[in-house]
Design a protein that fits this description.
Blueprint lengths: L7 H8 L12 H33 L7 H31 L5 H23 L7 E3 L6 E3 L1 H26 L10 H25 L7 H27 L1 H4 L6 H24 L5 H13 L3 H20 L4 H21 L7 H28 L12 H21 L16 H37 L1
Helix pairs in contact: 1-2, 2-3, 2-4, 2-15, 3-4, 3-5, 3-6, 4-5, 5-6, 6-7, 6-9, 7-9, 7-11, 7-13, 9-10, 9-11, 11-12, 12-13, 12-14, 13-14, 14-15
């Protein structure tokens, strides 16, 4: 029996999974297990990315630097596991939760996708152990230049496509019944659609690419749209977790749906650019850059501002719970990342400072969202005193890392370089990168505590 199998009864009651039709009856425990399979993959990916982060921290800390080859290989795996696998595996599970009902066929397709995705991640991790593939530090989707890594990445993305398709089929199969009613469900459903657009942009780039087009250029457009997927999922997390704050405002579902549609329009604009311009043209790159600059952030920022107003009113009436502090911390990280991004000048560490802020905001929101689901599973997580403060440990670490990297970027320290290549300008860069390293250690401790606590609780649950 799988480790998730013992957790099914309580989750099946909370999800209230029902068969869509008498001829396609689906056992409730089978449907309830599906998101757990994706989330277990996400948890393992986050744990593996944490190990890679430790290597990166050691490589960047003064006097403890590793060689550039080890640093860049660890960087590729860390980014792909922490941003691509962790984010999309969580999203795949939530797509299936948000979809109202599943038939047997959709359930089988999504379960097959989870198996494929797990096999793909295993191949990606084996790639550097079975050879020495050259790291390609492409933006958004860095790569290891080897057939096994490419195969694993393609299989993983194929598995996610199956999950998105199964969830979409479950929604379409309601045949006139009410669709995605809750605002968070609409945001999550829009993220699934945006993922389909990202795949379309990626395929168009492959079809229109000549022999001179680099791998980074082939992946660059699809990677842009994936950022919109993550933004929509972040909005879904905020809508779910911040429901009490939104209730303090006169915000209707139509306004929230409008913000979701506004963010989805950015993905549609990217698809239009892919249809009009060649992948290696200046217009293609400039168009995607302008969409990212002007169209990808207004919707989540407007939602964040509304939530902050709601939380201020909530504090005056009933007060905050600790979970409300976690959500505000996620909003603060997102705002910090956006502010640093507005000041980027050149290829310095200000670039990773920007995306560590925004990516950290998504990861923190996912962690808090996961804690809500874990409460329903009655996992024994109270044994560790630090568990209560785990989100704040992670968030504080990310904030320090963003500030340190932004400081170093202002001093001209280049990105994608190990520490020995970054400290040629004297003590200020040394101090800035030390602050970033300290933040990285704290964020890594927060991530490790999250993973180890959940895996330990699952083990205790099985023994019980």
């Amino acid at each position: 029996m799988s480790s998730s199998g013992l957790l099914i009864p309580k989750l099946s009651r909370s999800l209230a999974v029902q068969p869509r039709a008498a001829g396609l009856a689906v056992p409730a425990d089978a449907a309830a297990r599906l998101p757990l399979e994706w989330w277990l993959l996400a948890l393992l990916a986050l744990g593996a990315s944490t190990v890679c982060a430790v290597i990166l921290i050691v490589a960047r800390l003064p006097s403890l630097a590793l060689g550039p080859g080890v640093f860049r290989t660890a960087l590729v795996l860390h980014v792909d596991l922490a941003v691509l696998v962790w984010f999309l595996a969580v999203a795949a599970g939530l797509w299936n939760v948000a979809a109202p009902r599943h038939g047997r066929r959709a359930l089988a397709i999504s379960r097959g996708g989870a198996g494929l995705a797990g096999g793909g991640v295993a191949a990606m991790l084996l790639a550097p152990l079975l050879g020495e593939p050259r790291p390609i530090l492409a933006n958004y989707v860095p790569l290891l230049d080897g057939w096994l890594f490419f195969f694993g990445l393609a299989v993983f993305l194929g598995g996610v496509c199956l999950a998105a398709g199964a969830a979409g089929a479950a929604v379409a199969g309601r045949r006139g019944e009410p669709g995605l009613a809750a605002p968070w469900q609409r945001a999550v459903g829009a993220a699934g659609l945006a993922f389909g657009l990202a795949v379309a942009v990626f395929l168009l780039a492959q079809a229109g690419a000549g022999p001179a087009v680099t791998l980074e250029e082939r992946l660059w457009g699809g990677g842009h749209v994936l950022q919109i997927v993550h933004s929509l999922m972040l909005m879904g997390a905020w809508l779910y977790l911040g429901a009490p704050a939104l209730q303090q405002l006169a915000v209707g579902h139509r306004l929230v749906s409008g913000l979701i549609a506004l963010e989805l329009l950015a993905a549609l604009a990217d698809l239009a650019l892919s249809l009009v311009f060649p992948v290696d043209s200046p217009e293609y790159r400039q168009g995607f850059t302008e969409v990212m600059r002007w169209a990808s952030w207004p919707a989540p920022v407007c939602l964040a501002l509304g939530l902050l107003v709601g939380y201020r009113r909530l504090a005056r009436t009933v007060g905050w719970r600790l979970g409300d502090v976690y959500v505000v911390a996620s909003i603060a990280l997102f705002g910090l990342g956006c502010l640093v991004g507005a000041g980027i000048r050149g290829e310095t560490t200000a670039v990773p400072a920007h995306y560590h802020g925004t990516v950290g905001a998504v990861t923190l929101a996912y962690m808090v969202w996961a804690r809500c689901w874990l409460e329903r599973l009655a996992l024994p997580l109270g044994g560790c005193r630090l568990w209560r403060w785990q989100p704040l440990i992670y968030g504080a670490g990310i904030a320090l890392m963003v500030l340190g990297l932004a400081w170093a970027g202002g001093l001209g320290v280049p990105r994608k370089a190990p520490q020995l290549e970054a400290l040629a300008s004297g003590p200020p860069p040394y101090l800035a990168m030390s602050l970033a390293g300290l933040g990285g250690l704290l964020a890594t401790a927060g991530s490790g505590l999250f993973v180890i606590s959940i895996l330990g609780a699952i083990r205790k649950k099985r023994k019980a």
